[in-house]
Amino acid sequence: MPDAIADAKRALRAEIRERRQLLSEQARETAADGIHAQLDALVDELGVRSMSCFLSTTAEPGTRAFVTDAVARGIRILLPVTRTDGLLDWAVATADGDIAEGMYGLPEPVGELLGPIAVNDVDLLVIPAAAVDDTGMRLGWGRGFFDKTLGSMQRCPPVYAVVYDSEVIDEVPSDVHDQRVTGIVTPTRTITLAPTRR
């Protein structure tokens, strides 16, 4: 990756981290409610029966209430579990599932692990992001887990990145390994950029 692109990514991530840290508890709760409503509508619109999602950290737009309610509605949700080789294992979300701190301090489910290919059968992927632009280029947090996952899928379902409204920006710095998403979910809107990724 050219140094200029790497530097631009680092600077943008740092700016976004700082903005997220400054959000009030009320702003976080309001955002989580909005994400819940947007994801509920998306799941209904797409007729999703099986999907992947992630357990949000305190700084991320909240996904946990959505995951809990979706499991209660009978939707099968795979949650990512980081591996040392840069790939993701998956665990099925359960109503009473334990959560522990995984690699990099990320919240991850405790339980039976399914291998990286388990995600090949889902109807929808909902993934974290630092920012997304209107072409669907996503800026992750620099570890490449989701870019590797998306890049290796033979038949990729719709992929939506979850960000705050201010993180939908004009242009995300990118290189050849970065993967685009199908759409963006914010607390106030869902933007579908293309019917399919490929």
From TrEMBL:
<dbReference type="InterPro" id="IPR037171">
    <property type="entry name" value="NagB/RpiA_transferase-like"/>
</dbReference>
<dbReference type="GO" id="GO:0030272">
    <property type="term" value="F:5-formyltetrahydrofolate cyclo-ligase activity"/>
</dbReference>
<keyword id="KW-0067">ATP-binding</keyword>
<dbReference type="InterPro" id="IPR024185">
    <property type="entry name" value="FTHF_cligase-like_sf"/>
</dbReference>
<keyword id="KW-0479">Metal-binding</keyword>
<dbReference type="Pfam" id="PF01812">
    <property type="entry name" value="5-FTHF_cyc-lig"/>
</dbReference>
<keyword id="KW-0460">Magnesium</keyword>
<comment type="similarity">
    <text>Belongs to the 5-formyltetrahydrofolate cyclo-ligase family.</text>
</comment>
<protein>
    <recommendedName>
        <fullName>5-formyltetrahydrofolate cyclo-ligase</fullName>
        <ecNumber>6.3.3.2</ecNumber>
    </recommendedName>
</protein>
<keyword id="KW-0436">Ligase</keyword>
<keyword id="KW-0547">Nucleotide-binding</keyword>
<dbReference type="InterPro" id="IPR002698">
    <property type="entry name" value="FTHF_cligase"/>
</dbReference>
